[in-house]
Amino acid sequence: MAASGQTTRRLHARQAWLGDDTVAQDVLIEITGGVITAVTPGVPEAPDAEVLSGLTLPGLQNTHSHVFHRAIRGHTQVGAADFWAWRDLMYGVAERLNPENLYALALATYGEMALAGITTVGEFFYVHNDLQGMRYTDPNELGKAVAAAAADAGIRMTLLDTCYLQGDVKGAQLVGAQRRFDDGSWQRWAERVDPLQDSELLKIGAAIHSVRAVPQEGIAGVAEFASARGMPLHMHLSEQPAENAACLAHFGCTPTELMHRSGALGPLSTAVHATHLTDHDIELLGATRTHISMCCTTERDLADGVGPALRLSQAGAPLCLGSDGHMQIDLLEEARAMELDERLVSLKRGHFSARLLAAAATQQGASSLGWNSGRIAVGATADLITITLDSPRTAGAGARDPLAPVLFSATASDVRTVIVGGRTVVANGEHQFIEDVGRALDHVIGTLLTSGR
Known about the structure:
eight-stranded parallel β-sheet, single chain, 15 helices
């Protein structure tokens, strides 16, 4: 029953995935106050219900984003032979960010995410200071800019405010663009983050950039800070073999072992990438129920390798997905890439079912980011998307159960409807709050890449 003064929105999804192995037919979804209040499969269309034609899913959860990396999409395919050369190009954009152009870039990028069916983004954010490496009058001005951009684009954000203190495991001083990342100590990081507050579309989380960027006492300090507040805690982990080698040489253990010793692993934690792991690393991540954010399109673009997703899942680590450097923003591609990459490595098919891939893109991602979403169920936030079944890519998917055909054939362009908290953000494939996402992206990226020439 609707609370006094609240209206109930009724949606009739012709086909909807409710978390099972198969898709339900003719599902009535009732929404009150931004929350799902009833889910009833197998009912005829009611005259007062809005019809969702296609396959309706919970909103997609992008657990790992570096929003300003969107500016260099495609521009790193020449002259960036490895991860480290790519990183230098990325730092060039970081040097040009200010509150105004960062907001503009973030608004357009989150608009692109909304069009792709992403209803929540985990923004792994580490650009805190001004161009000289000094704090703004409001030390959280840049973080607040990206949070405002997400809200204005109509999607949820977990702001994973990132501690980044040094240039390598030996404590090298941060130089150049890296000075914008530096809080000076983990205690000053905590003092800056502590006043930040959750809101309807915003949740505050914490992040440890990596074992090379935060000293061991800082890793433990950030982990304790996050744990005491029940905050999601994310970290880059074993993305590069060079990172593992440096950690072994300096600490005598792997990055996973160091994070575990420092109290950073657990069910509220998410390890991003987790590409180059030992057997013991996999056991630790599974035993602690640490989430794993797989960012397959970024990992293949940077030639980082294929992470052991199947073994991690079998060990007990929940898998989720991220678009990371935004080489493309398409969580359907990220989902199927987990299975397809496993096929390339194993020369076998059938590792992850369609249900498991859908769960990684939705409910397990929501768990990683700390939201009560990612499910079409009573009590969950009303974040839904509908994917058309009659585009050139998806035509024929509805002849049988459409879940697997959609996950392996559809693209972000096939998303037609996006609803966040019961409010329509995308209708008929068009963003309702941003007039022309492509034009907005083109303008701000052009400005960023040509400034300073």
